[in-house]
Amino acid sequence: MDLPIAPLTLTPDEAEALSALYRRGTPANTLRAWERDLAYIAAWKQAVFGAGLDWPESESVALRFLLDHAQDLSDAPGPAQDAARALIAAGLRRSLACPAPATLDRRIASWRAFHRMKNLPSPFDAPLVSQARAQARRAAARPRARKSENPITRPVLEAMLATCDHSHRGLRDRAVLMLGWASGGRRRSEIAALSRDDIDTRDFDASGLLRIRLLSTKTTGPDLAPRLPLKGRPARAVMAWIIAARIDSGPLFRPVSLSDRVLNRRLGPEGIRAVIRHRLELAGYPSDFASAHGLRSGFLTQAALDGAPLPAAMALSLHRSPAQAQRYYADVEIADNPATDLLG
To answer: Which of 63, 211, 270, 276 could join 200 via S-S bond, C-beta 3.0 to 4.6 A?
Structure first.
């Protein structure tokens, strides 16, 4: 990705070095989001104004961006709807409906980040634009949407595991599901990114314990890579996959051919999603019963149902915000709260 970094005070070589520094120091997920947002913003301005991006951007353009994305354009013919249709045709926008506030916030945050990279003031910091943004957020307020329709709690997970046989595919899927759930509810990108070197097996023979190193997560980087414990059935499932697939190095989880041959490449995040959908269907659930995020929400929901202290669950899930993790605990039906049985 070519980041928009080119302050007037830098030489071309210095600007390229700074851009390379940003790429090395920024999580891959953030870089991908920046890339998508930059493409969207540039296409939107071209569609509305017939011009490319300016640095710094004008307050009037920023305000127009807010106004165009703070309303449902389905029944609002005019320039804003025409621009939205052009973005839909380009595959950059899904519909004429009002974008979710979180989507608008993320694109604005990216636009502001691009200005900071150029050492320039952001038009979104201007009082009028800032106030309009706050009003747009309130006007488009909606209930918090779940990332997964349902959490994959222990009963659902056990049903999915029961569909895994002793083939390479079955062993891999069992290891994916168990590691993803029991290590704190890992994101599919985190599961897919694991390599054999990230699995520390030194204590396995003595105590049945594995340690999982996460080089990059949404909240940590390689310099603070956590090492999470995995024990019992999940640890044995991961070891069974490693031994059966003869994985000595390289990607931990890999595609398996129709003839049940393990391929020598990494199973990507979409592959992790496909594993979850497939196992849900085999277990008798609709394929859209839960998304890959259901492993994460299911782990925290089950922790709440079992009465695990929130800090203990967060130590594995790696949530930085107690308020965010608390949402899963709050979603537990009050009658199922273990605290209701304190007197027996």
So the answer is: 211
pLDDT of residue 336: 56
Structural tokens at position 192: 């897919």
Give the pLDDT confidence score for residue 93 in this predicted structure: 92
Rg over alpha carbons for the chain, rounded to the nearest Å, is 23
The structure tokens 């839960």 sit at 290
Greater confidence (232 vs 330) lies with: 232
Query: Which of 327, 308, 301, 297 has the alpha carbon at shortest distance from 149?
Result: 297
Output DSSP code: residue 247.
-
Side chain identity at residue 115, one-letter code: H
Mean pLDDT of the chain: 86
Residues in the chain: 344
* Residue carrying structure tokens 């621009």: 83
Residues 176 and 325 sit within 8 Å (Cβ to Cβ): no
Q: 66 and 132 in contact (C-beta within 8 Å)? A: yes
* Cα–Cα distance measured from residue 193 to residue 172, given in angstroms and rounded to the nearest whole number: 15
What pTM does this model have? 0.61
In terms of pLDDT, which residue wins out, 24 or 56?
Answer: 56
Could you write out the DSSP letters of every residue in 127-165?
A: HHHHHHHHHHHHHT--PPPPSSSS---HHHHHHHHTT--
- Give which of 200, 213, 64 is closest to 129, Cα–Cα: 64
Report whether pLDDT(9) > 90.
no
Beta strand ranges found along the chain (DSSP E):
199-200, 209-213, 227-231
**Distances 287 to 177, 183, 249 between C-alpha atoms, Å:** 15, 23, 33
pLDDT digits (tens, 9 = 90+) for 96-129: 988 888 888 889 999 998 888 888 899 999 999 8
Residue 44 to residue 93: CA distance in whole angstroms? 10
At 112, list the tokens.
């502001």
What lies within 8 Å, CB to CB, of 252 at 6+ separation is 194, 195, 196, 198, 199, 242
- The residue behind tokens 């080089």 is 215
d(CA 295, CA 316): 13
Q: Please determine, for residue 29, whether its predicted confidence score (pLDDT) is greater than 90.
A: no
